[in-house]
Write a structure and sequence with these properties.
By secondary structure, the protein is an alpha/beta fold. It has two domains: 3-222 and 420-436, Rossmann fold; 226-409, 3-Layer(aba) Sandwich (Rossmann fold). 41% of the residues lie in helices and 14% in strands. The chain has 16 helices and 13 strands. It has helices spanning 24-29, 60-74, 89-97, 114-130, 141-153, 174-188, 199-207, 226-232, 236-245, 267-277, 295-310, 327-330, 348-355, 384-399, 409-418, 421-436; strands at 48-53, 78-83, 101-104, 135-139, 159-163, 193-196, 216-218, 253-258, 284-289, 317-321, 335-338, 360-363, 376-379. The protein has a seven-stranded parallel beta sheet, with helices on both faces. It has a six-stranded parallel beta sheet with strand order 10-9-8-11-12-13, sandwiched between helices. Helix 5 packs parallel to helix 6 (174-188) and helix 8 (226-232) runs parallel beside helix 13 (348-355). One of its GO terms (molecular function) is glycosyltransferase activity. Residues 242-371 form the Glycosyl transferase family domain. It comes from Desulfobacca acetoxidans. This is Glycosyltransferase family 1 protein. Keywords: Transferase.
């Protein structure tokens, strides 16, 4: 059996260079880490956890990983963040000041690059082999595949992977879809537990044969909806005033989209929608709140800007760039336009739009039906003509004076419960505890909080 598929193989471990050493003799006796000579025999030691993430910017995924790491550190656990080349220096410095150990692997990049990927696999393997991790938790696709293969090869006893969106989808070219699905199957054999952010996503992975029911757990991510609840209770007059304050005419019809500028968000479809409807609705505008984060994403942004020029939409489309607080934009949107491809987990911007009381039109994708209180008109993924027809109908209804409807209190309560950050953190802790309590050596799981 290949080394990277060998179940639970545990090689000889070397001392950790930048932390107090946790030697093999300490492990065997259960002496607490960092005080091998003074601690009494048999004392339990805290778990050592590594989170591996491809990109580390101020995004939702990075915030969720940080929340998990913060909770684990508060319990007295040893937590290390292993990040790729594309990471925010400010965010890394913030985590260092909070006492986290940060490792950066420059060869770990978001998109496929065989030479860099091979280097990343080797670097991760050496790191996992030379450090005595009790659990490795990988996040995002590239770190997920390479991190799990390297962790299993190095003998890490517990490997968890969080899935925020499918790496394969019907809208992809068949060769790429087949490659990614087979890579996921290979990495799935090295995974002890999968965490899915939605039921649809979990079902897709089970159907594809990537994970079994016994390995899968759905844990919805945490989200603070309070800024969007304030938007949801605004009166029509308040919305018109905010629209005017932003420089738009009261009769302007504004389509909104909040997302990173990446191909699977489908923003090129949004531009085609505006091109098709701009003559019938002269006051139609599109506002895209978000930006590209990596150089590869910058290439897609350039493509979008070129498309705006070629379609004659320079006065119709606005790219705001990244905004730390997107809530005020929902107050001036008339309609939320979802153009994401079907392998989303649960689209966070859709939750924001629903809470803000906006009607939603878009392509059908994973996770939409898992959002309490959602009411949407959906076209088949990639069906641009169907999407244009739905947007046209919805805009006609808005012109006819149909009022926006605030979210029902019962739906707000259900949504808050399902997408609670504290619930996400606690459920992840319970999953970790199930895995870590299977070890022979004693571990301190509760710690002090």
């Amino acid at each position: 059996m290949p080394l990277f598929l060998h179940p639970k193989r545990r090689p000889n471990l070397c001392p950790r260079p930048h932390l107090p050493q946790k030697t093999a003799s300490c492990r065997k006796s259960g002496i607490i880490f960092g005080n091998c000579n003074k601690s009494p025999r048999g004392r339990a030691m805290p778990p050592r956890i590594a989170h591996v993430i491809t990109t580390f910017y101020p995004t939702n995924t990075s915030a969720w990983v940080s929340a998990l790491a913060d909770d684990q550190k508060a319990r007295g656990w040893e937590v290390e963040l292993i990040v790729g080349r594309n990471a925010s220096p400010e965010l890394l410095e913030q985590k260092r000041r909070q006492g986290f150990f940060i490792s950066r692997i420059n060869s770990l990049r978001k998109y496929v690059h065989p030479a860099q990927d091979a280097a990343t696999l080797w670097n991760l393997f050496r790191r996992f082999r030379n450090h005595d991790y009790d659990l490795v938790h990988t996040h995002l696709a590239k770190a997920g595949v390479l991190g799990r293969l390297a962790a299993r090869a190095a003998g890490v006893p517990n490997i968890v992977h969080s899935v925020y969106g499918a790496t394969f989808a019907p809208t992809q070219p068949w060769c790429r879809r087949l490659l990614f699905k087979n890579l996921e199957k290979l990495a799935g054999r090295c995974t002890d537990r999968f965490i899915f952010v939605g039921q649809d996503l979990c079902h897709a992975y089970r159907q594809a044969g990537i994970c079994s029911n016994g390995k899968a757990e759905v844990i919805y991510y945490g989200k603070d909806i309070s800024p969007f609840l304030k938007v949801g209770v605004l009166s029509p007059e308040d919305r018109r005033l905010r629209k005017q304050a932003a420089g738009f005419a009261p009769e302007a019809l504004i389509l909104g989209n909040v997302s990173r500028l990446v191909p699977w968000k489908g923003l090129h479809h949004a531009l085609q929608v505006v091109r098709a409807l701009k003559d019938k609705f002269p006051q139609l505008r599109l506002i895209v709140v978000g930006d590209a984060k990596t150089p590869s994403e910058g290439a897609y942004k350039a493509t979008l800007l070129d498309l705006v020029q070629s379609l004659g939409l320079t006065k119709k489309v606005i790219f705001t760039g990244w905004q730390p607080d997107p809530a005020p934009y929902y107050a001036i949107f008339d309609l939320y336009l979802l153009t994401s491809q079907p392998f989303e987990g649960v689209p966070g911007s859709v939750i924001e739009a629903v809470v803000a009381g906006l009607p939603l039109v878009g392509f059908d994708c994973f996770g939409l039906r898992e959002i309490p209180g959602i009411s949407a008109r959906l076209a088949r993924p990639g069906d641009l003509s169907g999407l244009i027809a739905l947007v046209e109908e919805e805009l006609s209804c808005l012109i006819g004076g149909r009022p926006l409807r605030p979210m029902a209190e019962a739906d707000i309560a259900r949504l808050k419960e399902r997408f609670s950050l504290s619930r996400m953190v606690q459920q992840t802790f319970e999953l970790y505890r199930t895995l870590l309590e299977g070890r022979k050596a004693p571990l301190t799981l509760e710690g002090t909080r």
